[in-house]
Amino acid sequence: DLGPSGKPTHPLATAPVGAPPHSVDGFVKEFLHELNTNQGVPLSLSSVNDQYMALASTVRNYLMARWLETNRKVHENKPKTIGYLSAEYLLGRQLGNALLATDLSDIAEKGLALCGIDIATLRAQEVEPGLGNGGLGRLAACFIDSLATMDVPCVGYGIRYEYGIFRQTFVDGRQVEQPDTWLSLGSPWEFPHPEASVQVDFGGHTERYIGEDGRERVRWVPAWNVLGVPYNYMVPGYLNGRVNTLRLWSAQATKAFDLQIFNSGDYAQAVRAQTFAENISKVLYPEDSTPQGKELRLQQQYFFVACSLRDFIDHSLEDGFDLHNLPERVTFQLNDTHPVIAVPELMRILIDEYDFEWDEAWDVTRRCFAYTCHTLLPEALEVWPTDLLGRLLPRHLELIYQINDHFLAEVREAFPGDELRAHHMSIISHGQGVRMAFLATVAGTKVNGVAELHSQLLRDKVLPDFSALWPEKFTNVTNGVTPRRFVRLSNPKLSELINDTIGNGWVTDLERLKELEPYADDPEFRAQFAEIKAWNKHRIADLLRARDGIDLPDGHLVDVMVKRLHEYKRQSLKLLHIVSLYEQVLSGKIAASEVTPRTVVFGSKAAPGYAMAKETIHLINKVAATINADPILEGRLKIAFPANYNVTLAEKLIPAADLSEQISLAGMEASGTGNMKFALNGALTIGTDDGANVEIRKLVGDKHFFLFGMSEPEVAELGAQGYNPHSYYDANPQLKATLDLISSGVFSNGDRHLFDMVVENLKNQDRFMALADFDSYVAAQAKVEERYADQDSWMRSAILNMARTGYFSSDRSMRDYLQRIWHTTPML
Ligand code: NBY
């Protein structure tokens, strides 16, 4: 503990670290100290970035005593820890959350004002760490927030990408990606620990030899290696004194690797080796559903998982710890299949390094892992070609074959003579490769989906043979979102109203929002609620004006669809609704004055290689430009598509929404989490019976939710019959007129073919059945307009949405994981 030099004699050396005084004066003193000693500038000469960096360090200092104390307690009490393994963490800005967790917001604001600084300017200086694509990465961030707040020991493990999710720009309506240089102005929230670096091996071959005990053993002789440098981030619990750790790994060349080449005299080659190693954590892959079978991606996956297991075993366990007891000390939660290579890695460590017998090693391994699946799309399931895997990780491929052999023996025992079943269930599919979801299912103690419908479909459609073999392995944990970031921080006025009405217990016990239900009938409360909604609309209007030069009209229904661009999510269906409204006005079927004044806001990134998604973005922008410029709908319909939707924008946009668009084809969206954030901020949902929408609707009630479209069984039936989108086009004159308007060239300067890719696909393929749901969607939108016309009734529903969706706190999700999967309880 105290290092090699013996007992310290200075009394301060063993005193617990204290936080700076919780007062404006104490804060100012600390802030100026940080500005002077960390940034090396006096206040008078400091830049905004200097001030932001000093502010971040100051807040960090307040958290430090708690972090040290948390770590001391973990060291002393050796509780079971959750090792959350995730290739993505979409954290959002850190400053506001840290201020909230330390209850310093007011003190900081006052202190900075006394220094002549507006804290809002410093908040705006922070570049969010965008180390994730979308829902999956944001979920990981919500979960670690909840675990810290619930006093559960957890280490989040992941990758410190030098470039996170690309920065989206639009050039003539088309998406153009720019690198996300989030580290360029310094990163005040991270603590690098190069001294705790871990070596990770790759490539080479394996050798068999006879060990001292006379048994045959295997030795992996790797060809090259890299160093993983840990960067620690604080994960503060909300006002509870706990600070957990998020440990992100950065890749560096190892000394040995350099030296070898330096000694050969090839300096340039040695420097290239450095670059080669550092490439591993260079950039986040921007695909959010179709995995790229790229070698570098597998390197990333193995890199962070190998670092994390090594780190946990070497640094979290006491010397001489018997690894047979590892499951008592950790569950590694696999956030989708991206970290599944951890399974053969733990087997390798136990067998090759710790001399475990196969059965012992497997028993330990399977009790250490649990797997969360986040998809239903077949193309989203990761499969690694065996030759690639064998080249990069030869020992791991052998172990996977062995795991598969043992597993298939179990299948044959359970279903004698059913060779076809064994074939279907094989982890290794001939011709394809290693099916990572199967490996995860075989290895995990538990397998969970992320909403009730999804978990059901996972059992019935994606992994039916596995659920037949191990029914008790499958469970559901419905996703949740952190109320700290997505209500308390993002909607300060609403938070104040809730506090004034029911006290502030809801921030850590979100079901208490139920106590607001009676206030839905209180005209005074409704008026306050409506005023806050209007205030949030002005706030986003101000932001979009400054950020994007977009002007939002006053007094509109704010209709928001924000999520990654994917055909299954059906942004094109939203677009058809908009174009249909426009077409009806253009052709005189309805008067512009009959259209409910509405602003539709889109926010969405497309995977750079996903042509259809990019074309859809292009079309949305062109439709927006045309309609926004056409006086015929002036003041009636406005389309806003701010570029680079991210967590920071979401925090301002979601609280301003009246209507939440959750319109995926039923059976396709595993859960959705944006849907929860909108409901909690008092938006009504227009949505299909998909993902967590199903549970939202059940809780808020049919009267307060606009359901439309086919149900999942109806989708399956239509698919089985043979879906023909063209028949809908032919049969529905309004749908035909809508698609024809796009093909007419009005949105493309007369070019009738510019959007052929999107239009022809809808007419002829339409894999996600947008045309089949069009009528029902348009009818539901008409109901929306009708309801919105009665503001009292709308606000009542909005309040009930908020009051009834406390279930979707990620604190509740974590309680479910603790009970159903991790079998552990919060502890101090
Ligand atoms: O995970 C999302 C689901 O689509 C959404 O329904 C769910 O609410 C959310 C949290 O459970 N999935 C998701 O965001 N997936 C990815 O971001 C992703 C990223 C990378 C890859 C695959 C999926 N990949 O293969 O590289």
Report on the structure:
By secondary structure, this protein is of the alpha/beta class. The chain folds into 3 domains: 1-77 and 98-127, no CATH class; 78-93 and 128-478 and 816-822, Rossmann fold; 500-808, 3-Layer(aba) Sandwich (Rossmann fold), CATH 3.40.50. The strands form 6 sheets. Strands 1, 4, 7, 8, 11, 12, 13, 14, 18 and 19 form a 10-stranded mixed beta sheet that branches. A 6-stranded parallel beta sheet has the order 22-21-20-23-24-25. Strands 15-17-16 form a 3-stranded antiparallel beta sheet. The mean pLDDT is 96. The structure holds ligand NBY. Ligand NBY binds next to helix 7. Ligand NBY binds at residues 133-136, 139, 285, 287-289, 291, 374, 380, 382, 450, 479, 669-673, 691.
CATH superfamily of the largest domain: Glycogen Phosphorylase B
State the shape: globular
Biggest sheet statistics: 10 strands, mixed
Residue share in β-strands? 5-15%
What do the pLDDT scores average to? 96
Which radius of gyration do the C-alpha atoms yield? 28 Å
Class of the largest domain, according to the CATH hierarchy?
Alpha Beta
Number of domains: 3
Number of helical runs? 34
- Ligands bound to this protein structure: ligand NBY
The CATH architecture of the largest domain is 3-Layer(aba) Sandwich
Instruction: Please bin the fraction of helical residues.
Output: 40-55%
The fold-level CATH name of the largest domain is Rossmann fold
Number of strands: 25
- Note the gap between the termini: 21 Å
**Structural class determined from secondary elements:** alpha/beta
Q: What ranges have pLDDT less than 50 throughout 5 or more consecutive residues?
A: none
